[in-house]
Amino acid sequence: MSTTTSLSKSSPFLFLIILLCSWHAQSHGHNDFLQCLSLHLQNNIGISNVVYTQNNSSYLSILQSSIKSRRFTIASTPRPQVIVTPAHESQISAIVLCAKENGMHIRTRSGGHDYEGLSYTSEVPYIVLDMLNLSEINIDVEQKEAWVQAGATIGQLYYKISEKSTTLAFPAGACPTVGVGGLFSGGGYGPMLRKFGLAADNIVDARLVDVKGRILDRKSMGEDLFWAIRGGGGASFGVITAWKLKLVSVPETLTIFSVGRTLEQNATKLIHRWQYVAPNLPEDLLIAISIGPTNSSKIGEKTIQAIFISLFLGRVDQLLHLLEENFPELSVRREDCTEVSWIQSALFFGGYSIGESPQVLTSRNPKISSALPITRFHFKAKLDYVQEPIPISGFEGVWKLLHEREAGMTEMLIVPYGGRMKEISEDALPFPHRADNLYKIQQLAYWDEPGPGASERSITWVRRLYNYMTPYVSKSPRAAYINYRDLDLGVNNAADDTSYAQASSWGLKYFKNNFEKLVRVKTMVDPGNFFRNEQSIPPKNFQATGSKLLVLNRFIRQSPFFKLLNLMMNISPVSPVESELEDSVCPIQPFHEEQKNSQSSF
Ligand SMILES: Cc1cc2nc3c(=O)[nH]c(=O)nc-3n(C[C@H](O)[C@H](O)[C@H](O)COP(=O)(O)OP(=O)(O)OC[C@H]3O[C@@H](n4cnc5c(N)ncnc54)[C@H](O)[C@@H]3O)c2cc1C
Ligand SMILES: *[C@@H]1O[C@H](CO)[C@@H](O)[C@H](O)[C@H]1NC(C)=O
Ligand SMILES: *[C@@H]1O[C@H](CO)[C@@H](O)[C@H](O)[C@H]1NC(C)=O
Ligand SMILES: *[C@@H]1O[C@H](CO)[C@@H](O)[C@H](O)[C@H]1NC(C)=O
Ligand SMILES: *[C@@H]1O[C@H](CO)[C@@H](O)[C@H](O)[C@H]1NC(C)=O
Ligand SMILES: CC(=O)N[C@H]1CO[C@H](CO)[C@@H](O)[C@@H]1O
């Protein structure tokens, strides 16, 4: 409160300074950031190895190497002023504090798979904090636990586990290049979700650098923040540096199959029937479906094909028995099935042949390309949850729309829930999509040609499909999954004055009733909203006070001129009106102390 008062008294004076000094702050923000970094990293590893400005010859290759959505590889995609690739956790404290001090936004990037590119794009001056060099993985076979740093990919994690044990595993995503930093903080599901739940359900500890530059673990961050980062998206709360995982036990031998059925082969009836079967199968068995247009055997004609893709945590005999009992219509034969190790199943779901060396899973940019279309084409995705079976007529309308696309250029990915997902309560973690759902259905448009024409056509088309689905999917809210980020659902105001009500438009879809608690945690740990992006959780202070003075203060605080102001008045550039002014101002101290402890967990 006292700051508000002092600002209001001195405001005419402030505007004078703003007018005089605006050019200065604007052009030097990132240089000052670099100066601050070099000051605070000099006794460490030094900044020369970890900082890339646009002048560095490898700037572009570092930036682009982790852009995993081809939609954002085009020249008009915004670029950061600086990329920092810390080599040690302790350096992140300095990066956070120097960025805050100099009014630079941070976009934290682990694997770079964000569907809307938010980990490396921004409309305001920003730095990319790229975690790619923090990718250590330590497996403790005895304790069935692992520490994995945020920059590791799930493929690297899977491979490391498989090196140590053939019966330990971790239930995360399918595509091996996805980063654990983003995936786990948004939930993270994969082929074992019916047995073990989400990746986030199997996290037991974490390390995070907060807005004050402190390195926290589960104990020091507290249970509320630890709850928030397991499904609420990491980007709103700080920089996650590592996760501690509870590994799960799997049999030596698993079974996979993939069978395609076209409309002529009763696909519609099978999909319709699947809705009653798949969510209620024993939790060792997952049967997902990928549906899309395909070239028919009749030349020049197209049809729709449903590919039923399955993982069974057991042997083929038992699987065939279960299928005979539950889903005989699918007519899966023994020769459709393959017995594999868990790591081979990871190759299969990653779009590789199971004969491939598992080492291909460790590459961030694999030389052998995955067969998954999402890794090969530009894409735009929408997500829905289905709570009541869709009637045959509903699917027939979908086929009409799918027929408008070329073969291979769209996909509906259907993943059954039930099993473990049904047992976990909606508020156990921020991810709320549990018992109420039969399955989820991802709608994807792919395109290959660059340029705005193709992308506009495809995005418009997938939005039409999404509109068509309205009567068949979850309502109030029409639920969504933060890891399948969709900016169509709404975005924060650039002016950082998004109200709770406004953010609810996507917040309730992603988090349902957990949104409110996420806002509470955000308000507690980052009331100044330093960690923010187009869909981050807003803190509540704007709404709570709502005074004109606060609006004025916010305007000034965000302006590029505020840094000078800060120097003259000794106010932090990004801290909120009512809290922690003293914490935000350089010189930086806390991380030097924390540094000593920070290595112990690895
Ligand atoms: C090809 C492909 C396959 C996918 N497969 C699956 C799947 O099988 N299952 C599934 O659940 N999802 C899947 N996804 C979605 C995926 O979970 C999300 O895109 C996820 O956010 C990616 O994490 P990342 O680290 O690779 O992404 P990034 O783009 O690096 O980050 C995503 C978001 O998390 C934030 N973030 C990243 N690292 C940190 C950190 N260390 N601390 C704080 N915030 C951080 C970023 O700022 C950004 O907001 C897939 C996506 C793609 C493109
Ligand atoms: C980037 O360039 C600067 C000077 O322009 C240099 O000091 C730094 O070492 C370079 N960074 C890397 C990672 O090569
Ligand atoms: C980048 O190069 C330009 C000239 O090419 C120079 O003016 C600028 O100072 C350089 N920036 C850094 C951070 O080295
Ligand atoms: C489709 O279903 C009908 C009866 O429901 C059955 O007679 C026919 O053999 C099926 N076709 C295929 C290709 O399985
Ligand atoms: C399908 O057929 C069309 C021509 O009819 C061809 O251009 C296209 O490449 C084919 N697509 C696939 C995925 O085979
Ligand atoms: C300092 C450091 O370890 N840098 C490495 C970061 O990762 C890139 C890509 O793997 C390497 O090229 C750097 O050497």
TrEMBL record:
Recorded superkingdom? Eukaryota
Establish whether keyword Flavoprotein is in the entry.
Answer: yes
Listed cofactors: FAD
Keywords of the record: Alkaloid metabolism, FAD, Flavoprotein, Glycoprotein, Signal
Q: What pathway does this protein act in?
A: Alkaloid biosynthesis
The text of the family note is:
Belongs to the oxygen-dependent FAD-linked oxidoreductase family.
| First and last residue of the signal peptide | 1-29
Q: Which SUPFAM superfamilies match?
A: FAD-binding/transporter-associated domain-like
- Domain FAD-binding PCMH-type stretches: 76-250
Q: Which InterPro entries match?
A: BBE, FAD-bd_PCMH, FAD-bd_PCMH-like_sf, FAD-bd_PCMH_sub1, FAD-bd_PCMH_sub2, Oxid_FAD_bind_N
Annotated protein name in UniProt: FAD-binding PCMH-type domain-containing protein
